[in-house]
Amino acid sequence: MRRASWRGSRRSWTTSPRTRSDGRHPADRATGPVTPPGVEERRLGAARALEVRRLGTVGYADGLALQESLVRRRREGSAPDTLLLLEHPHVITLGTGSHPEHVLADAAERARLGIELYETGRGGDVTYHGPGQLVGYPILDLKPDRTDLHRYLRDLEEALIVAASALGVRAARVSGLTGVWTPTGKLAAIGVRVSSGWITSHGFALNVHTDLRYFASIVPCGIRDRDVTSLERELGRRVTLAEAQEAVVEAFSQVFGVGVM
Amino acid sequence: MARIEVPMPQMGESIAEGTVSKWLKQVGDTVERDEPILEISTDKVDAEIPAPSSGTLVEIAVSEGATVEVGTVVAYIDSEGGAPATNGRPAAEAAAAEGGATPGAEAPATEVAEGGVAVATRPAETTREASVPESRPAEPPSVGDATGPASAEERLRTRSTPVVRRIAEEHGIDIASVHGTGHAGRVTKQDILGFIESGAVPAPTPGQAAAAPAPAERPAAPAPSPREAAKAPAAATAPAAASAVPSDLWKRFYGEVQHPEFPVREADRVEAMDKIRRLTAEHMVVAKRIAPHVHSFIEIDFTAIDRIRNANKGKWAEQGTKVSYTAFVAWGTSRVLREFPMVNSTVSGNNVIYRGNVNLGMAVDLNPGLIVPVIKDADDLSLVGIARKLGDLADRARSRQLLPDEIQGATFSITNPGVLGTMVGMPIIPKGTSAILGTGAIEKRVVVVEDPETGEDAIAVRKRALFSMGYDHRIVDGADAARFLARLKEVLDDFPEDA
User: Fold this and answer.
1) Which of A3, A163, B329, B391 fits as disulfide partner to A247, beta carbons 3.0 to 4.6 Å?
2) Which residues in chain A (231-260) have CB-CB distances under 8 A to chain B?
3) What CATH architecture applies to the domain A48-260?
4) Cα B485 off chain centre by
5) How far is the C-alpha of A121 from the C-alpha of A194, rounded, in Å?
6) B269 touches chain A (CB under 8 A)
7) Of A221, A228, A247, A251, which is the active-site residue?
8) pLDDT of the residue at B323
9) Residues A241, A247, A252, A258: is their CA dihedral positive or negative?
10) Considering only CA atoms, which of B194, B172, B193, B176 is closest in space to residue B185?
11) Looking at residue A99, what DSSP letter applies?
12) Residues B150-159: pLDDT tens digits?
């Protein structure tokens, strides 16, 4: 008898802390008939896992190739959900919704500043990546229970808001403008691609201690009347990429209800 | 006629419409099930939409740039392969496809998945499997076979396991160029590894991908180079096929251990880990992550060992040897290990390797750092033999003169946190072994002993130590560990005079 009651209390303990921000629980679909003893452990073990890969500085083209390869493997089932965290050298990228006129720096200017230019398959307009910016590419299979692009975008925003908050920056969403914002400006840009089979790629770019002057070479995300900002600018102190990286990993595990490997 | 509608898909609860950003296929093109045929965009997201069925794209109903409501039909696919787009497909094959247009013939067509699209779990699955042997190169393609540019032979060869495809990709190898010895000419892992070893791998040429005549399947592609881009008008960066992932990036990606990073504060000092520290750090993380650790403890009485040690000290000193407590423990352990093969084993894949030798890894503190030299075949050595070997290895470990061979091949390890006074430790099991013994500080303790003759209890002072054993619970059960420790206690408590 004592044994049975112990199991019961354990079950309620294990589920409560993993409740998602939207009130749904990742294991909800697993509830149903009364589970035989020992099943709780297995269900927990089977809860989603996310492999985090901290790659340091990666060239933009190499990052693209890696993502494509991982998307393919994710689809085949030979790779787990993975979060790539990295930094790019100076680069301007054009999303599929880009307006070329939002690249303000001409070829000569870009060459002078050492900025590369890439056209890429993510959604969204023009953006800039460079040193001091934490870039995250989640390669997730949203099937079967997360097949909602808006929900995915809001989850990405949520994770970045939680991470910023952990570092002492209050950030928020702005209705109609995907991304993460502070009153000063845009803290993180988001642009996502979903390949056949609901596999995500591309993702977010969080300004940690980015040299914001580089954003002058573009109209970030095609939005002219808003500024960009960084964690460093918001806090008035140096924030390292490592610090932001771990905050993001922690926030991801909370928001996406995943165990981080 | 099976004219299949391709609707604007529902990409989210609050998404009511989508914009067709690009048609990846044109009217008349042959499409394979799950192959991306168009791209749509919604706010900040671009999505490839896969074909719901194999066949021929016969009509595009919504042009690029147009925004339509979810559910609107954007295209039609003729699943029986319309006449216009056979792409020079052999007439026989087309006829076969035509003739095979019976109910249910559609399902086998899902296997086109040349790039390894996840196999659909349909009832027709078994039919599909059964049809594979029929697709041998010498025979006409079976009804359900893929339509597309690749020959049946090429398809079979490229339909290799994910492992093989991964290796091929990481080395930039076209699988079709490897001789396959597997079923129906499939390329096996051995084939591809042999191919790599033979040095036949061509050096990857950066321009190769761009020069390929294949249509740009993957729009997410880099511009040729910043300089070239600069020559062209602004943003004239034509999408090209993806470049390969450089091997050093794969290496970083696969680095077994990625240590989280932490902020540095003003008064802190940051130093790179030296090689021993780096290897130790990686080893510990992997060892702890893989093996489910359990620890059990037992108290050992050193009274008998102490007596033997004191009685022989002089004799051993004359022979130039010092026999430490550790040597006694190593001797006893090596004998007991013979009786417990699972403690002297390792889990390897789905197998267990029971080691044929008893090689004891003995942790030596280098302060800073630690190294674990190995006493090979410890169970063949006498107590003095073990003591000599131990002294020699420890000396050379401290002067950094160990040979690589002397720190490899341990089948069981002993660590001695007690040497510095620690009561007991919970050591991590080195990877590739299934257990480790930790010896706590040997201290005089007040204990209750029973007089063997009168059976009366008495309080006595005894030299005792707590031993802990960490073991890999995949292979060593709790009772195994308990029996091992009990047996070890028996041997050490009543240490033989003639060891």
Assistant:
1) A163
2) 239-243, 245-246, 249
3) 2-Layer Sandwich (3.30)
4) 33
5) 10
6) no
7) A221
8) 95
9) positive
10) B176
11) -
12) 455 555 555 6
pLDDT tens-place string over residues A78-110: 888 999 999 999 998 887 767 777 788 788 888
Placement of tokens 């499997």 in the chain: B129
Considering only CA atoms, which of B318, B482, B345, B491 is closest in space to residue B411? B345
Which DSSP letter does residue B136 get?
-
Name the residue facing B44 among A55, A103, A192 (closest C-beta): A192
Structure tokens at B252: 């970083």
- Under an 8 A CB cutoff, do A243 and B237 touch? no
Tell me the nearest-neighbour CA distance from A33 into chain B, angstroms: 25
β-strand partners of B22? B39
Q: Could you tell me the pLDDT band of residue B243, with boundaries at 50, 70 and 90?
A: low
| Domain positions in chain A | 48-260
How many residues make up chain A in this entry? 261
Do residues B107 and B128 lie in contact, with contact meaning Cβ atoms separated by under 8 Å? yes
- Give the nearest partner residue to B244 out of A65, A201, A241, using CB atoms: A65
Q: Which residue has the higher pLDDT, B217 or B58?
A: B58
- Which residue, chain included where needed, has tokens 């559910």? B71
Question: pLDDT of B291-314, one tens digit each?
Answer: 999 999 999 999 999 999 999 999
Indicate the pairing of strand A133-139 with strand A116-119. Answer: unpaired
State pTM to two decimals.
Answer: 0.57
Please indicate whether residue A221 is annotated as part of the active site: yes
Q: Dig out the tokens for B483 from the structure.
A: 């029996």
Q: What pLDDT does B33 receive?
A: 85
Structure tokens at B350: 């789905």
**DSSP code of B349?**
T
Nearest-5° angle of CA B371, CA B437, CA B490? 140
* Rounded mean pLDDT, B211-234: 39
pLDDT of A182 over the 60 cut: yes
Q: Which of B171, B283, B295, B473 is catalytic?
A: B473
Joined together, the tokens standing for residue B263 give 């902020």
Instruction: Map out the domains of chain B with their CATH numbers.
Output: 3-197 (2.40.50.100), 214-255 (no CATH), 277-493 (3.30.559.10)
How close does chain B come to A71, measured CA to CA in Å?
A: 11
